[in-house]
Amino acid sequence: MATAEQHYILPRPSFDKPVKILIVVSPYYKDIADNMIAGAVAEIEACGGSHEVVEVPGALEIPTAIGIAERMSNFDGYVALGCVIRGETTHYETVCNDSSRAIQLLGLQGLCIGNGILTVENRPQAEVRADPKDQNKGGGAAAAALHLVALSRKWGGPRKGVGFIPASDEIQIAGDSKGVPTA
Hints:
Blueprint: E1 20-25, H1 30-46, E2 50-55, H2 62-72, E3 77-85, H3 91-108, E4 113-120, H4 123-130, H5 137-155
Parallel strand pairs: 1-2, 1-3, 3-4
């Protein structure tokens, strides 16, 4: 049983400048979503960060909302929250796989995303995972996003260009004032 396992949790990251996180949530199961939001907000505030919450209809819309926010706003990171409970059809697999894959692709593009979309067999599993006093998966997703923001700040901002240093950033190693190499 998963609750008997002991897990190492990284220490909270610290930040020199404020962190702004967008929480994108599908409140399809409102009580579960509310618990996950509470856990995420507590974690963000514990790091001195600020947050906004937006709601979307379902788990499949979460990655799209994050993509829109990345293009049109100024968030440092994102927390994806929702819950998919297995039903009687294969729709469960589609929603779980496609939402997870889309979030992963956004992350591979450099977005700092904590994925807190629960994929469970039944409601009791979701309730335990969402509860801030129990497994606190909302807080865990926020912590993941915050750690990625800290990592991206450690390594600096994105470079212009792909695989090379643009001419404007080159350092002249040897040469006279006109750039002619010297012997």
